[in-house]
Amino acid sequence: ARRDALPRDLEGRHVAISAGGTREPLDPVRFLGNRSSGRQGFALARVAAQRGATVTLVAAHTADLDPPAGVDLVRVGTALELREAMREAAKTADVVVMAAAVADFRPATTAEHKIKKSDDRPDPVVELTRNPDILAELVVHRFPGQLVVGFAAETGDAEAGPLEHGRAKLARKGCDLLVVNAVGDGQAFEVEHNSGWLLSAEDGGASATELPLGGKAELAALLWDAVSKKLEYVPP
Ligand code: CTP
Ligand code: CA
């Protein structure tokens, strides 16, 4: 894409984006993690910077990605670290985007020393504690005019399809926009088949905007289009 072909509609705006997967330590050498690559969050940051925004990118563990040019990159490990970094960035952000895969649970305790196996003690059981819901917290603490965006990967199940799950999550989280990716859903597991929708709190997600199959930069562009439309609207 030609750089000068992009709109500069985020000029003067500060956006804070989280990306990647958190890692929750069990001991000094082990962790609970997830498969998030961070690619979507990095694409969001890159496109936002190209459209003129000041970008804070809070990155948990990611694949070996080139950091986008011209963004302020903050590296974090755990969900609690990501929460602190996003809280700080959100103080001045016009838009906050939670694209990170945050571990829902962390080990209740982190062993100070490497956990050893032992023949005369029973095998250990990992007790888990719930991590805070960072997106929901950012929604609670948002200032007037600040936009908060969430992501959700949903499969259908016996109760509802991915879109219905997305609408319920939008309501539960209270964010302004929610990107819903339909994953799996009876299709082959390996297929990188991400169709999705963009839901807005304005109408409770009723008018789901379809996100056509495309690259992560295309999805980023569509999300920033929606965000910049919302930023333009100043309530009387
Ligand atoms: N999220 C968050 N903090 C958490 C968990 C999730 O901020 N502890 C954010 C994610 O970054 C994402 C959104 O919430 O933007 C939805 O994440 P998801 O895992 O789909 O939602 P959960 O509320 O954790 O629900 P589920 O039980 O379906 O995992
Ligand atoms: Ca979750």
How would you describe the overall organization of this protein?
This protein is α/β, with parallel strands linked by helices and 236 residues long. The protein has a single domain (3-232), classed as CoaB-like (Rossmann fold, 3-Layer(aba) Sandwich), CATH 3.40.50. Helix content is 26%, strand content 24%. The protein has five helices and twelve strands. The strands form three sheets. The protein has an eight-stranded mixed beta sheet with strand order 5-4-1-6-9-10-11-12, with helices on both faces. Strands 2-3 form a two-stranded antiparallel ribbon. Strands 7-8 form a two-stranded antiparallel ribbon. Strand 9 (147-154), helix 4 and strand 10 form a beta-alpha-beta unit. Helix 1 packs across helix 5. The protein is globular, with a radius of gyration of 19 Å. Residues 185-191 have low confidence and may be disordered. The site of cytidine-5'-triphosphate has 12 residues, from helix 3 and strand 9.
Mean pLDDT across residues: 92
Number of domains: 1
What sort of overall outline do the alpha carbons produce when their principal axes are compared? globular
Second CATH tier, the architecture? 3-Layer(aba) Sandwich
Work out the radius of gyration.
19 Å
- Strand tally, please? 12
Q: Which hetero compounds are present in the coordinates?
A: cytidine-5'-triphosphate, calcium ion
Q: Structural class of the secondary elements?
A: alpha/beta
Largest sheet: 8 strands, mixed
Spans with pLDDT under 50 lasting ≥5 residues? 185-191
CATH C-level label: Alpha Beta
Q: Superfamily at the CATH H level?
A: CoaB-like
**Roughly what fraction of the amino acids lie in strands?**
15-25%
Instruction: Give the helix tally.
Output: 5
Give the terminus-to-terminus CA distance.
Answer: 37 Å
